[in-house]
Amino acid sequence: MRNEQTRDGLARLLLERIRDHAMIALDDAGVVTEWNLGATRLLGWDEAQAIGRPISDLLADDPGARERKQSALEYAREAGEFEFDGWHRRADGSRIWTHTQILRYAPGSGGPGFAILLRDLTERRRTQEQLEERGRRLDEAQHVARLGSWTWDLATGVVQWSSALYDVCGVDPHGFTPSYEAFLDLLLPEDRPHVESEFERALQAGGSFEQENRIRQPGGAIRLLFTRGRAICENGRVVRLVGTCQDITERHEAAERERELLREQAAREAAESLLEEKAALVTELTASREQLEQQAIELETQADEMMRLMAELEQRNRQLKAANEALHAAAEVAEQARQVAEQANAAKSQFLAAMSHELRTPLNAIAGHTQLLQLGIHGPMTEAQLQALERIQRSGRHLLALINDILNFAKLESGSVRFREQDVDLPAAVSEVVTLLTPQLNARRLQCIVAPPPVDVHALADPEKLDQILMNLLSNAIKFTPEGGRVTVEFDLEGATTRVHVTDSGSGVPVDRMEEIFEPFVQLRPDASTLTDGVGLGLSISRSLARGMGGDLLAANVPDGGARFTLVLRVAEGLISAEPVVRS
């Protein structure tokens, strides 16, 4: 009895003193029974105002919102727990964006109830909205200026275009894969050698370049582009090229019109000089009256012609002024686009840094408190409580894995990943990963067959990065294979490369999405009614890591159904030293 009182006292003290999270207890009807200091800080209601009131009245100010809050409780009642991100009302009428977790529990005394944990994510939500808005503004500005941007990552070979660049080049973003060779193929044959020379110079010596080049769009139209490029170096080596392409066809045509007007102006000045000479000649002539009258008629005719020419030149001058004004407006839009791009990059960096700090810290705290409860530090736990703590642990590990995926993707995108390459026994590496995934295989009653390699298979790779790729491929195979199915791993050698094939017995990958699945944040569902874990970065990260080690990651469907992912690595032969080779 005394131990139970001590445990209840510690639990109540923990509930009252945690300030970073709102922790609320409800009875079975959704009425507040416990309200900690964190809830007061986040929501503005003090404990006296909150106790005894329905939680939907405190967090919502309209019938629709209250109904949604009540629906969340009903879902948690059926499923045992429910998590979502959304807006809540505070006591002063303002809104707060939180991550909300509702847990169903049965207290030691009294009937069943709910525990609610809320974490404030308002600032992160606003930062994300600002980043998305700046991205939209940049895209709109680039389309208005007929200016597209591009990036070429030399480590991975990946070329990325902004949406405006597809429009500038007249290609369909859904059917066109950007690459250096694809851009060269758009150029007119007579312009291609000069473009290749400028790019080669930047790749070898760094620096920047500017050039005008012509392309032929798929529809046959010829456009004049002004291309800028700059080499990005790290440790004295060029690792990336970035630049822009602007359609200056109209500007070039306006310049041609201006040159034509200048030629016409020269003709007008010559005509005026001729008129002056004629007038002087009239003064000097002592010819007969008939001759003078005839000359006067000729001069009058020439004067009429001169007036017509001057009127035409005035019209051309107005056209030239309008063209100059359009060029000035385009230059201003291009400068605005550059400023928006710089702001978007800065916001992106701030967002990733904030996300890392804001998510890792509370996750570690949750994991630590959960382990203390599992160890019985605060008293014995029931089986149901231990199961609930295990679910909390799994959710925390899953969320931490998602955060690590996003941060790994950011490192790969910035080119800051380092590889420690050494001789790796591929079958042994696969065996270790299969052992780690045995619980998932057993849970789905799957058979995992690792075929013996035909020869001793070793690869030149970073062991940590290799484990990450194999874990992603085998986890995907398990996820997309129906219960009772089979996952197969095979090895082979082809020239100077070794290959690991991971094949599942699922429904395969749609042919039109075979390359799309390697793009960041792209997900496939095993079937139409199933939601997948993760944020769609596993395959993108795996391909980038494989290419960073001099290999590749490929996908294909197999005739009997299912998908096959092939990891290509260099054979570890002829190593000078057993020491790892470190490179970026």
Outline the secondary-structure elements:
Elements: H1 2-17, E1 22-27, E2 32-35, H2 37-43, H3 47-50, H4 55-59, H5 63-79, E3 81-89, E4 95-105, E5 113-120, H6 122-145, E6 147-153, E7 159-161, H7 163-169, H8 180-186, H9 192-205, E8 208-216, E9 222-234, E10 237-247, H10 249-284, H11 289-374, H12 383-414, E11 419-425, H13 426-436, H14 438-443, E12 447-450, E13 458-461, H15 463-480, E14 486-494, E15 497-503, H16 538-548, E16 552-557, E17 563-571, E18 581-583
Parallel strand pairs: 12-14
Antiparallel strand pairs: 1-2, 1-5, 3-4, 4-5, 6-7, 6-10, 8-9, 9-10, 11-13, 11-18, 13-17, 14-15, 15-17, 16-17
Outline of this structure?
This protein is α+β, with helices and mostly antiparallel strands and 584 residues long. The chain has helices spanning 2-17, 37-43, 47-50, 55-59, 63-79, 122-145, 163-169, 180-186, 192-205, 249-284, 289-374, 383-414, 426-436, 438-443, 463-480, 538-548, and strands spanning 22-27, 32-35, 81-89, 95-105, 113-120, 147-153, 159-161, 208-216, 222-234, 237-247, 419-425, 447-450, 458-461, 486-494, 497-503, 552-557, 563-571, 581-583.
Q: Describe the global form.
A: flat
CATH superfamily of the largest domain: PAS domain
CATH architecture designation of the largest domain: 2-Layer Sandwich
Write down the overall mean pLDDT: 82
Q: Helix coverage percent of residues?
A: 40-55%
Stated plainly, the CATH topology of the largest domain is called Beta-Lactamase
Structural class: alpha+beta
Low-pLDDT segments, ≥5 res: 1-11
Determine the number of helices (DSSP H or I, runs of at least 4 residues): 16
What share of residues are in beta strands? 15-25%
Q: What profile does the largest beta sheet have?
A: 8 strands, mixed
Q: Could you say how many structural domains there are in total? A: 3
CATH class of the largest domain: Alpha Beta
Strand runs, count: 18
Q: Terminal Cα separation, in Å?
A: 62 Å
Rg (CA only): 36 Å
